[in-house]
Amino acid sequence: MSEAVDVANERHLKPWADLLSEFSISNSPLSPFIHQELLEHNHLFVNGEAIEGVGFTYEHPEVTPELLREQIEVAIAQGIFPPVLGGEQEESKN
């Protein structure tokens, strides 16, 4: 597991840092870094039956590309995600 985490972090941290630098984002709460402890001995899936059993309903029961894009656009507007979606966001590059 240690090697897999090291490879993933090595593969993603530098490109993320480069993007932040390219778009002059000096501070972002978002990071591709993963701690090994988060992957070991933890379930990576929750089916939601228990919370649904007490009457909870999901506003968005399925993740869609449109919902993901919407959240990325919010993060771009907040200045915590590089504007790399294409279209008019690319024009805002510094």
Give me the number of helical elements: 5
Q: What is the total tally of β strands?
A: 0
Strand content is under 5%
Distance between the termini: 39 Å
What structural class do helix, strand and pairing data support? mainly alpha
Q: Outline, from the CA principal axes?
A: flat
Radius of gyration of CA atoms, rounded to a whole number: 17 Å
Total count of domains: 1
- What is the multimeric organization of the chains shown? single chain
SSE pattern: HHHHH
Helix content bin: 40-55%
Unreliable spans are 88-94
The main pleated sheet reads as: none
Average residue-wise pLDDT: 89
Summarize this, please?
This protein is mainly α. It has one domain (2-91).
Describe the structure.
This protein has 94 residues and is mainly α. Helix content is 49%, strand content 0%. It has one domain (2-91). It contains five helices and no strands.
Question: What are the main properties of this structure?
Answer:
single chain; 94 residues; mainly alpha; 5 helices; 49% helix; 0% strand; flat; disordered C terminus
What topology does this entry show?
Elements: H1 2-22, H2 36-39, H3 49-52, H4 65-77, H5 88-91
